[in-house]
Write a structure and sequence with these properties.
By secondary structure, the chain is mostly helical. The chain has one domain. The chain contains five helices and no strands.
Length: 108
């Protein structure tokens, strides 16, 4: 949540906003890039990619600002909704599905 706040703050550098926004959108999105029902790979993004992305984004945000964003996040009860993140993940899955249809069904 603190990264989501950082992504929308004008005091944060643009590259940190980009990283924080992408990580927060992906972490808070109900849709995963690799669905959890796929053995091993389904949880790989949750176990490896999300923590590495969070660590990288937190290091890009200036420490005093990050402390402020953490305090703000701790005091708020709501969870942000990432429609952009969900749209990107759905688009990736749709493109993959279209590619599979094209390769296996239309190439007969």
């Amino acid at each position: 949540m603190a990264l989501w706040i950082a992504a929308h703050d004008p005091r944060v550098p643009w590259y940190a906003k980009l990283a924080a926004g992408c990580v927060a959108a992906y972490a808070l999105s109900p849709i995963d890039l690799i669905p959890d029902f796929i053995p091993v790979l389904g949880y790989l993004d949750d176990i490896v990619l999300v923590p590495l992305g969070i660590a990288a984004a937190v290091r890009m945000v200036p420490p005093p600002l990050m402390a402020e964003f953490r305090a703000t996040a701790a005091s708020s009860a709501g969870r942000p909704i990432s429609r952009v993140g969900a749209t990107v993940i759905i688009a990736i899955w749709a493109a993959g599905g279209a590619l599979l249809v094209w390769v296996f069904w239309l190439q007969r």
